[in-house]
Amino acid sequence: MFRIKDPVQECRELLQNYKCLIVIDGLQSTEDWDQIKAALAFQRDNRSRILVISYEESVATYCSKDNWWNVEGLEIDDALDLLIRTASTSRWSSWPSDPSPADIEQAKILLHKCGGLPQVIVAVGNFMAEGWSIDNDDNFMGTLETHPAFGSLRGLFDWVHSYFHSCEDLLKPCIFYLSIFPVNHKIRRSRLVRRWIAEGYSRDTKERTAEENAEESFLDLRKLNMIQVPGSTSLSSFMRMPLCQVNGFFREYIISRSMEENLVFELEGHCSVNSQHTGRHLTIGSTWDRDMSVYGSIDFSRLRSLTVFGEWESFFISDKMRIVRVLDLEDTSSVTDGDLEQMVKLLPRLKFLSLRGCKEITRLPDSFGALRQLQTLDIRHTSVVRLPASTTKLQKLQHIRAGTTVQLDDDTSIVDSLAPPQPETAVTSTLSMSRLRRAATLVLPELWTHCGRLLPDSHNGGVVVPRGIGKMTALHNISVIDVSVASGSAILEELKNLSQLRKLGVSGVKRENCKELCCAISDHAHLESLSLWLGTNQAGCLDAISPPPKKLESLKLYGQIDKLPPWIKLLSNLRKLKLRLTMIRQHEVDLLKDLPSLNILCLSFKEFEYGELRFRGSRSFRQLWILEIACNSRLQSVTFGDHVMPRLEVLKIRCCNNVPTLNFSGLEKLQILREVLLRGSYDNKVEQDMRSQLGKHQNKPGFKVEPRSNSS
Predict the structure, then answer these.
(1) What's the predicted TM-score (pTM) here?
(2) Which residues on adjacent β-strands are paired with residue 584?
(3) 56, 272, 626, 668: least buried by Cβ within 10 Å?
(4) Could you tell me what percent of the chain has a pLDDT over 70?
(5) By C-alpha distance, which of 475, 451, 455 is closest to 465?
(6) Dihedrals φ, ψ of 705, to 5°?
(7) Sign of CA dihedral 558, 562, 567, 571
């Protein structure tokens, strides 16, 4: 280069005469890209390939609208391998040559704080290779920011500092709010969104509702990888994934700043009386020693939210907390009915109350109607089987999540990971630390749930709601309600008044009440998600739904019926269909093939006509991305015809009852198939046959086999 008078001109000539790979790392702005492109005279018909690496999605999409990809954080095993390889490069390394299980465990704790970011992991590995060590109890983020050995991370920190400095005022509190949740803790998307709304971080505007604005904030943080989808896939960025977790690196950064902002403070381990101070959000960790003296020294005058992990203590609630808006006790143990009565008495301004998983809660107190500001009530997986009459006084209540057994389907699973698609031809391939293809409001729950024991007085897993529910016109989401009781038909009549419903779950559907159900659902203007649990011998009881809701995107049908309602074929906006019924016939499979928007199809049946499933018809199931099939010994074969499912990427197979034989034919015709998951109880021959077929597939899809189970 010293001999070249004009290196830009020299590079330009190289690009004209040779096929080159060009890597541009750390691109910070669209203006920089325009200058580089103009200086080097990039041409679209050039044979070279350009790889651009940026932290900003807007820069990535500006460089290439189509061919760009989000660099997800490494999974823990890959991260550990990278750390060990990097840290073991010198004889002065602080990493032991023969690490013990305790060393590996400590390394994993450290890696979680790295957030799976290869740049950070390599920097830490090099630090250890030079003989330094990082204690997990030390100020991890402070060390990365200030120690000279981490100079390679200056660009990353410059970008993070710049982003936080220029971040919109409405989004910044949502970011700091993430530090409430422990590292690697799985967070339901709806839980986070509803909490933001209750805190006032997302409000109604002229253009959008508070929930739509909160979803937009969620997507913004997802695009920045501050929020990640566990086991994320190529589909996860444009699907409405139900589970997420906070990136460990960004969580450490947020924690190092949140105390300066005086927003979140945490009780963890052993705390002294003088080590804590006031703040808006208090998190009680599972490892905290529950010291009453320490707790009594805290100033609760500004407290807006209380989140508890681990065991509950009655002294956690105080009459000094009267302006608390959010009380989140999801999966907290030892919460009693008496504790709940105190919560209702002392926290009158609650907008969000989650008792999900608090199994010792058996009832809501009669005084529950005093929570006049309540917007979200989550009592799923508690022992509550009936809502008190005072519930109807809660005119601001929008979301009721209930149900007393895990037999009810829940939106807490994720798509398993698969490799990203590779474009056939591309002049510019852009990697970005943030990626979002197309937004779609989809939820992908697991197809197979373990059936749990129904609790006493509960026949269908739902809760009995009081008369007068039809007056709660603010309701957007109510699931799951039990209509098998004597008042069931009257309750269904009242549902017609809930014109703002977006999501509805009903159990205990039978012939005696199906007329009222069909009337309540028919032509509903806003309903987007419908889940129904039907009793035995209820074939045809849903046929009277006419016309079906036009906006319906998710439909789940469970029960002992052997015939699909004919109106399913009219659901032009249906994106997800889950069927767990008695039997499916071939003409019903054919009925589903032309649904124009169907992305996810989950099939689970006791009987299959002629013991087979056939997917046939050119360009049928043309928008299907994910297919899940539950197999038993009665299903002998699954066949894919020519040109079927042209966009299918993921195939999930669940076997039960130790399936002896299961023949798949036509897998090679699924041209963009990229992953197959086999789980459950099956014979070795099933796995061997599947592996053999996939080995011949032109796309070489990944094949994941989960440990076999003997359970049915």
Answers:
(1) 0.85
(2) 608
(3) 272
(4) 87
(5) 475
(6) -120, 115
(7) positive
